[in-house]
Amino acid sequence: MRTSGRPILLKDRQVEVVVGGHAVARVAGAVVVVAHRGHARPTPDAPAVIALESLAELVRDAAEQHPEGPGALVARAATRWLMTHAERISPGAPIDFGILSAAETGGVAIFLHGAVTAVLAGDGTVERYRGSDAAFTVDRVASVPARAVALFVDDPKGRIPDVPAERGIGWLVEGIAQAGGAIVWSDAVRGRSEPARSEHAPPPPTARIDSGPTQRPEPEPQLEAEHLTETRASTAMLDSVQGQEPVDPHHAPTQMGGTNPAPRPDPDLQRRLEATAKATALTVKVLGFKCARAHPSDPRSAFCTVCGMPVDQTQQLIEVVRPPLGMLVLDDGMTYMLAADAVLGRDPEHSEQARRGMVPLKVEDSSGGMSRAHAEVLLVNWDVSLVDRGSTNGTRTRLPGYRDWIRLPPHQPMGLIPGTEIMIGNRVLRFEPAAPPPFG
Q1: Could you give the number of structural domains in the chain?
Q2: For residue 71, which phi and psi values (nearest 5 degrees)?
Q3: How much is the pTM?
C-alpha cells in the first residue's frame, strides 16, 4: 500500500528484535527503542516503559498528521518531549532512546538521544550514528541501505552487536517487547524460505513476537497489556525507494529555485561533526527566570522557554544554564538544535569558525551556490542571530507572512524570529522555537 506514491513503513512488514533487557516498540510503522538501565526486567511502571508508551503515542500522532512520511514531525515532537516530559518521567536520570520512521523524501528518518546507536548496513559498508556523540540529539535522514537499518542500545562500554548476515524468524508486529534493539531489513534481503507477503494479506496477531511457525512465547506475567519477550538477533523489512524529492510548498522557495533531495551522508564526516558538537558543553550561563517546573526561561517571555507554561515575572533574576534556543529545520526535514554558536556551509568542518569552537553544520548542496563556510548562527544571551560571512552568492531570508526574499548585508547580524526562512545556496532552512506553544 502506498499513499500518494510515497513510501511508508508498512504495518504488516516484519520487525524482529535482538535479545536484551531494554524496551522496543513497533507503532504506526515506526520503531522505538528505549534503554532500561535497571538490573531487573522492565515492568509497566519502569521509567523506560513509561517513556516508551509516551514516545509511541507521539509517533502515532505524527503518523496520523503526516502518514506519507512522519519523520520530520517525529523529530520535532521528540525534541520537545525531551525538554518537557523526560525529566518528569525519570527525574535526575537521562532517558536514552532512538526512533526509526519513514522520511517524506523516501528514506529513513533517524532520531537518537543518548546511548543508542543506529546502524545502516549496505553491501559491504556499515554506517553508524551514535546518539552519545551528539551534543543533544542526532536527527538525520538517510537513504534506505541495501541490507538493513538497526537500532541498538549501547552497553556500559559503548559497544553494540553486529548486524547479522541473515535475518531470523522472530516478528514484532505491533506493541512492545523486551529486547536490546531492533533490525529492519531491506526488501533485497528477504529470506529464501519465506515468500513475499501480499500487501492485502491480513497481518499476524499484534503485540506478540513470533519465534517460529509452531512456537509462540507466553506473555510475561508482569506485563498483561503489552507482551515483553526475548528472541535472538533477527531482521525486518523496509521499502527502498530512490530518487524521491521533498515536496513542501511551505518550505520550497518561490523565486530562487527548488531544493535538493537529501544526499547520502558521509559517516566519517558526520562522526567528526557530532564529536565537535559534543565538545561544546551546554554550560552557558545567563540571567533568567525559572518556571514552576524549574526550567530556565527567557525573562522577557511570559511563558517558559522549555515547556511553555506560564512564568512568574515578579521573581528575581538568577543565573541559569541556557537551554537550546530553537532549531533550524532543513527542507528535507532534518533539524539542528541551536545550543551553541554554529557555522553553516557545504564544508564548515574545515573553516576558521570551526577551529574557533563553533559547531559545524554541514548542508549538502549540488547547485554550486553555497560557500564552504556560508553563514553563522550566533547565540547571544537569549537571542539568535544570523550573519552572512561574505559568501559569493549571499544569504537570503524571508520573514513569516512575507513573499519576497531579502539578501542580508555581509557581516551584519540579523535577529531571527520564529518562522523566519533562510536560503543558502539552493537549500532552505526555517527557524523554529524549541518550546511548545504556551500551556503545551
Answers
A1: 3
A2: -55, -45
A3: 0.56
C-alpha to C-alpha distance for 20 and 259, rounded to whole angstroms? 42
Same domain for 374 and 440? yes
**Domain check: are 432 and 334 in the same one?**
yes
pLDDT given at position 8:
44
* Residue-number span of the structural domain to which 309 is assigned: 285-315
Q: What is the DSSP string of 78-143?
A: HHHHHHHTHHHHSTTS---EEEEEE-TTSSEEEEEESSEEEEEE-SS-EEEEEGGGSSS-EEEEEP
116 in the same domain as 70: yes
Do 197 and 175 sit in the same domain of this protein?
yes
Residue 3, classified by CB atoms within 10 Å of its CB into exposed (0-12), middle (13-18) or buried (19+), is exposed
Is residue 8 included in any domain, yes or no?
no
Considering only residues 126 and 254, tell me which one the structure prediction assigns the higher pLDDT.
Answer: 126
CA-CA distance, 71 to 246, in Å (whole number)? 12
Q: With H, G, I as helix, E, B as strand and everything else as coil, classify residue 352.
A: helix
Same domain, 275 and 289: no
The sheet carrying 375-380 orders its strands as: 359-362, 342-345, 375-380, 383-388, 414-415
